[in-house]
Amino acid sequence: MNGYQRSFLLIIALVCVSLCLYFLPGYVHVGGLIPLQATPEMLLRLSVTQGTDSHSEPTRFHAQNCPEKWPSLVEKYRPSSSLKPHNSTGNIETMDYTKTTSPDFTRVSILNVRSMYNVCDVLIVKIEARNWLNRSKGYGGDFFRLKVYEEDPYSAAAEDEVVDFGNGTYLAFFTLRWAGHVKVGVKLIHPSEVIPQMALTATGKVGLNITFSGEFTSGSASEEVICRYVELPPPMCNLSNPRTHGPWYCQKPKNPDLTCKDWKYHKMYKGTFLRLEENLTPLSRSLLKKSHMVEMKNDLVIRVFNRGHVLPGSRGTAPLPYCTNDGLPQGIHAAGYFYRNKWFPDRCRVVSFNLIDGMKCLRNKRVVILGDSTIRQVYEYFRDVYKEYFIQLPLAKGVTKIQGPLDLFSKSYNTSIQYHFHGLPSSGTGLVLKADTIEFVADRLHSKKDGCYAIYVISLWAHFITAGTEFYVERIRAIKNAIQRYLDQCPRSKVILKGANTKDHPALWIAIVSSEWNIVKMELALREIFRDERRVGFIDAFGITKVQPYEDNVHPKRPIIKEYVDRILTYICKS
Fold first, then answer.
1. Positive or negative CA dihedral for 284, 288, 291, 296?
2. Are 378 and 565 in contact (CB under 8 A)?
3. Which of these, 434, 366, 427, 450, lies nearest to 396 by C-alpha position?
4. Residues 487, 447: contact at Cβ < 8 Å?
5. Residue 145: how many CA atoms within 13 Å on its side-chain side?
6. H and E: helices and strands count for the chain
7. How would you classify the pairing of strands 169-175 and 122-128?
8. Which stretches of the chain score pLDDT less than 50?
9. How far apart are CA 311 and CA 354, in angstroms?
10. What torsion, rounded to 10 degrees, do the Cα atoms 200, 201, 202, 205 define?
11. What is the β-pairing status of strands 433-434 and 455-459?
């Protein structure tokens, strides 16, 4: 036997020994042999690392079509009915601040500790809420935002589900979508003790403290009066639109030369939001300053590998289908993830359009964008990024660039894009609406003024939070009815809805009127209302911005708007 043969046999022997050791019953392999009976602390030190290991770098890979393993795990761990989540007992407004949830002392750990994880495995994260005295809390109700992520290049996914045990313990379930060294991020949005303040906003009662005004003008006579979305003491002007659930009332002008028909402008009194802070209880004020949207530090990092998975679209596999108009998802679960700064929706494919392909897609199309400023950003994206193809038409007399209607037109592609604000209510001292150009979304759809081949992109949420969930629900129902009637008559048209997105809270009053807790409540209502309507497309803006690589902002950055635009164009030209 020569030297080459001996070397070859030695290599074969070493491989066989390694495989035997790797699969030896009762042990796991983590750079050595570790008994399966090892304590969680031992495994945690081995599997949850604080850095990368150049000798065991996971193969780069991500998976859009993971099987849903998390629902069965959620049911396995879900508490019994006797442990339903509940808020604190007693009067929380007399509670000592030190008894509330502390982001500094609340503990975050991994429940299903392993030496390594595979793509599509489920990671279970445990949160133990503790107060400022570093003592366990006996009740639930805290509101967290969670994610698993890598920083460079940025990848991130939200949790599939969070289970509140009602005793201060929470479990979060994550589907691991990519191979790499993955961290765990937890942000305390609201401690449970401030939720009653947020719930008060959801009733609409807080919004009654906001003062709108109406300007009535005729000839040289002019007068400003108070207006609201609830009836005012008589005499008043009923300016409501009952078909679209657009209740609106103004005090009747005292000037005898003015009538209700002389309503010309809508706006908001300056400083009206600041008065909301005056109604905060001392505890709520303290919590919104110290325990609001706080990142909770932890050093958890896991290693995720790809073993046995094949990337969709690889040789011998079918590519994922394009995303189509198939309705809204139910509940709020992870519906996609960022991988290397690009958003990938779950189970379907979105095309990343360049400018030429985008215009080819829009050839001979009319796109009508209706809603608030978070969807006006889509109009502005086309205006700025596609500026070599579009011209912006002059504004009509008295129309503002905030309210619209705003129009883009491309002669060479015969393409028009219009934006129009959704109608009342509207908030913000800089938003002045010309009364005779106020148009409700349902009215626009009922009118069929855009023909039977229009593409409607609709989003309204930000101006409705203070009006309360019930008000919002009634408006969305009216819009749904109009959408269904339009699609029944114009089945080849397309309607795309965009949900709410996360936002920043630079002031106390913004936290009161735009809490993420309230945003989620409205988002759930939107999805439930459209449960039985599968002909609409949906942009999960909340899912995207919840784990975005940028700071929260009511107006997300351009790369996020690009994700919206790609989804819209995919719906238009690939579904």
1. positive
2. yes
3. 434
4. no
5. 24
6. 13, 27
7. antiparallel
8. 15, 17-57, 82-90, 312-316
9. 24
10. 80
11. unpaired
Identity (one letter) of the amino acid at 317?
A: T
Q: What was the pLDDT predicted at 242?
A: 84
User: Phi and psi (nearest 5°) for 320?
Assistant: -65, 150
Distance of CA 457 to the CA centre of its chain: 17
Neighbours of 478 (CB within 10 A): 22
**Which amino acid would we find at residue 77?**
Y
Amino acid at 507: A
Distance CA 101, CA 108 (A): 13
In the prediction, which pLDDT does 398 show? 77
For residue 525, the one-letter residue type is A
**Measured between alpha carbons, how far is 331 from 479 in angstroms, rounded to an integer?**
20
State yes or no: cis peptide before 253, omega within 30 of 0. Answer: no
pLDDT of residue 429: 65
Residue 183 pairs in a beta bridge with 149, 301
Extract the runs of DSSP E, i.e. beta strands, from 66-202. Answer: 107-110, 117-118, 122-128, 143-150, 155-158, 161-164, 169-175, 180-190
* DSSP element (H, E) containing 77: helix 70-77
- Structural contact between residues 324 and 317, judged by C-beta atoms closer than 8 angstroms: no
> Cβ atoms within 10 A of the Cβ of 364, count?
9
CA distance 145 to 191: 12
The letter for the amino acid at 426 is S
Q: Looking at the chain, how many residues does it have?
A: 575
**Which two structure tokens, joined as six digits, stand for 112?**
């299903």
Q: Is 119 in contact with 63 (CB distance < 8 Å)?
A: yes
pLDDT at 61: 74
| Greatest extent of the chain over all pairs of C-alpha atoms, in Å | 117
Residue whose token pair is 């690589």: 549
CA distance 164 to 402: 42
Cis status of the peptide bond prior to 425, with omega within 30 of 0: yes
